């Protein structure tokens, strides 16, 4: 993972808040189309063949969502005053991916990948 990317995102968010710019942050964790095919391996577009790098202990729960779902909720949030100057967290109720249950940890996903 590119931790500098996340650091820069945090800096931008803090600056927006400091300047008083109206905003709504959309927090959706991981987009399926971009990160799931590579098991969240930076720089890869397909699953690795021999080893997977897991940050931390791998037991942190993650949620994968479709980018079209994020787009739909973002459009709805534009005119909803309840989301002004807030963070909208997107979470799924059911999983469409058999590799990762709804809110699986990375270790479980990698174990399922090894068995496949």
Automatic annotation (TrEMBL):
InterPro entries: NAD(P)-bd_dom_sf, NmrA-like, NmrA-type/Isoflavone_red_sf
Record-annotated membrane-spanning stretches: none
Residues annotated as domain NmrA-like: 4-92
Stored Pfam families: NmrA
Protein name stated in the entry: Pinoresinol-lariciresinol reductase 3 isoform X3
């Amino acid at each position: 993972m590119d931790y500098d990317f996340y650091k820069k995102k945090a800096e931008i968010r803090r600056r927006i808040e400091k300047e008083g710019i109206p905003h709504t942050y959309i927090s959706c964790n991981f987009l399926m189309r971009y990160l799931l095919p590579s098991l969240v391996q930076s720089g890869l577009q397909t699953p690795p063949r021999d080893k997977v790098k897991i940050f931390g202990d791998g037991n942190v729960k993650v949620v994968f969502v479709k980018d079209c779902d994020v787009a739909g909720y973002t459009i709805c949030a534009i005119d909803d005053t309840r989301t002004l100057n807030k963070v909208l967290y997107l979470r799924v109720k059911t999983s469409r991916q058999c590799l990762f249950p709804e809110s699986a940890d990375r270790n479980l996903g990698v174990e399922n990948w090894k068995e496949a």
